[in-house]
């Protein structure tokens, strides 16, 4: 999840749904407020610099979920910090990948990477 948060911040922003499974089924959350606080605190301690995001409760298929909206960052690059290591991520297609060294980190938020279909 943090790789995606960082990649969205380094790009054009994006949304993450909490309360769904890997097959995109809505399973819901049992403790929405508690989950929101844990997610917020996790991001605040593992992402540098601080990112702009909102985390709002919602109902889908009569189940409680959280919707996170992540803004495109103004202070790129943003990093996922884990065990003393800082790693920048970007979105390529539907994946969050380590930012390639050839990407100019000063201009991460201005580039849009589009998938190619033939």
From TrEMBL:
Protein's name in the database: Schlafen AlbA-2 domain-containing protein
InterPro entries tied to this protein: Schlafen_AlbA_2_dom, Schlafen_AlbA_2_dom_sf
Domain Schlafen AlbA-2: 2-97
Pfam family, one: SLFN_AlbA_2
């Amino acid at each position: 999840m943090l790789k995606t948060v960082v990649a969205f911040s380094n790009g054009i922003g994006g949304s993450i749904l909490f309360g769904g499974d890997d097959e995109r089924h809505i399973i819901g959350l049992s403790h929405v407020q508690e989950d929101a606080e844990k997610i917020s605190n996790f991001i605040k301690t593992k992402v540098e610099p601080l990112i702009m995001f909102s985390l709002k409760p919602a109902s889908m298929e009569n189940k409680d979920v959280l919707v996170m909206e992540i803004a495109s960052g103004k202070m790129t690059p943003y990093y996922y910090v884990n065990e003393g290591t800082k790693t920048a991520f970007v979105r390529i297609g539907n994946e969050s990948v380590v930012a390639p060294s050839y990407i100019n980190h000063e201009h991460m938020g201005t580039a849009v990477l589009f998938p190619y279909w033939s």
